[in-house]
Design a protein that fits this description.
Elements: E1 2-7, H1 13-24, E2 28-30, H2 31-41, H3 44-54, H4 61-72, E3 81-84, H5 90-102, E4 109-114, H6 117-125, E5 127-130, E6 136-138, E7 150-151, H7 158-181, E8 185-189, H8 194-204
Parallel strand pairs: 1-3, 1-4, 2-3, 4-8
Antiparallel strand pairs: 5-6, 5-7
Helix pairs in contact: 2-3, 4-5, 6-7
The structure holds adenosine monophosphate (AMP).
Length: 208
Amino acid sequence: MRLVLLGAPASGKGTQAAVLCDTLGVPKISTGDMLRAALAAGTALGKEAEKFMSAGALVPDSVVIGLVDERIALPDCAKGFILDGFPRTVPQADALAAVLAKKSTPLDAVVQIDVPRELLMERATLRRTDKRTGQIYHLKYNPPPREAELEHRADDREETVTKRLDQYDAMTAALLPHYTALGLLRRVDGVGTPQEITGRIKHALGRE
Ligand code: AMP
């Protein structure tokens, strides 16, 4: 199963990606993680990417396309993969399609987890991490124990969340019609428990 998973910040995409990788037995490929690893390793590519990442800008298409091309050629992708954070632009989507066409292994689906903006905002701005354990809580839906030492991630603050959601909308404005036209897009209601949403994704993929 070769999938692209789309979802705004705080949409539950990370949770669903982990569950799906497990049940489908395929790796998750996250260009954000790969770029951060390159940066941490101090490679030339990492240093080049850092200029863009620290400015909150997209890394050039050629860089991320090269990374994904190499990654999906590795043996663990033989059964498929879940792409997270890639493609972000239509040229990236076209480059991915070209790479996959060469191997005669086209994408099976693009799943978008839909969550209303007000709820995304509430999830992110009320999210807190216990500094001691790393456990994530939600002040309304999953309140922390009294002894927790709470931390509010800088990128979960309201202004930053608004900016990240705007960026996500701008990105998908072109990608969603692109994948709709190709008949690949499956939209899944992302409001509910993680289990309910996993069930909906499997249903959308015909994998119940
Ligand atoms: P993420 O963890 O997916 O939010 O990615 C972190 C940062 O890495 C982004 O803000 C971009 O600077 C860069 N990045 C990750 N994936 C891509 C992509 N597909 N295209 C361009 N830049 C990317």
